[in-house]
Design goal:
Largest sheet: 4 strands, antiparallel
Helix content: 10-25%
Structural class: alpha+beta
Strand content: 35-45%
Radius of gyration: 16 Å
Number of helices: 6
Order of helices and strands: HHHHHEEEEHEEE
Distance between the termini: 39 Å
Shape: globular
Number of strands: 7
Length: 190
């Protein structure tokens, strides 16, 4: 089986060893890809233990299981990386995860922060996430306001591990209240 993360490798040679704990990601991007794959196979232990320790207490196993199981995972696109190599201690990965849930084709666009712990293992720290219709161009939706579009982001709450944001886009039908941790416990506004 091809790896869900989108690499050209087989799952058994790509993300599965990370998820099973027989190998560890050497880069932030490898951790991001393996976390996406973990959602597709509902590997909750891996998702929890690949979080930064300060974020684990907020991990809702039941909600994450429900969301992962009810979602049809389509693809992962890595848009950019900043640092996060095997010689770095911090890294940022910008990605879009495409999925279908409740009959809606969506994409989660996130800029995710990763950290290498003292034991040499990468962990997911936090991220700024927005959900969009799957066919929406992320670059256009996050560009400077144009003649038919105004984009507003309003941070409403920030804790040590989460940033809640209300995004309003005039000129489109998109509405969103986002939370990090790759979409679980997120809320959409009507």
């Amino acid at each position: 089986m091809a790896c869900p993360c989108g690499n050209k490798h087989k799952y058994q040679e790509c993300c599965e060893p990370f998820i099973l704990g027989t190998a560890f990601p050497e880069t932030a991007e490898q951790l991001m890809r393996s976390r996406y794959s973990a959602y597709t196979v509902v590997a909750l232990d891996y998702l929890k233990h690949s979080l930064a320790p300060e974020s684990r207490k907020d991990f809702d196993v039941a909600a994450t299981r429900k969301w992962a199981e009810s979602t049809k995972w389509k693809k992962l696109s890595i848009l950019s990386t900043k640092k996060g190599t095997s010689s770095d201690t911090k890294g940022i990965v910008e990605f879009c995860a495409f999925f279908e849930t409740n009959g809606d084709d969506l994409q989660l666009h996130e800029v995710a922060e990763f950290r290498k712990e003292k034991d040499g293992h990468w962990v997911y720290v936090d991220g700024d996430a927005h959900t969009h219709p799957a066919n929406e161009n992320v670059e256009e939706s996050h560009s400077l306001p144009g003649p038919n579009r105004t984009y507003y982001d309003f941070p409403i709450l920030k804790s040590n591990t989460h940033l809640f944001i209300i995004s309003f886009v005039s000129g489109t039908s998109r509405k969103h209240l986002g939370k990090s941790h790759f979409g679980h416990d997120r809320f959409d506004l009507i």
